[in-house]
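Please review this one:
***
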Amino acid sequence: MKSGIHPEYRQVVFHDTSIDQYFVVGSTVATDRTIDYQGQLYPYVTIDVSSSSHPFYTGKQRVVESEGQIAKFKKRFKSLGRKS
């Protein structure tokens, strides 16, 4: 194995901002930010979605406040139906 070409593997604190949850995972992610978590200093990365907050893993779907683009299109052009 060549030396000096592999990224540093270390424990990193990830912060899921959507549910305000912290978790420590081994990673090679590069970051300049650090955080004191449970009495130790770790590299720190914020994320928007994790397996703890993603609807696929939690089984909870979010309510979408607006219609999708396809539904809007169909609604707009409904009266122009095809005539054979």
Summary: Residues 30 and 56 are 28 Å apart (CA to CA).
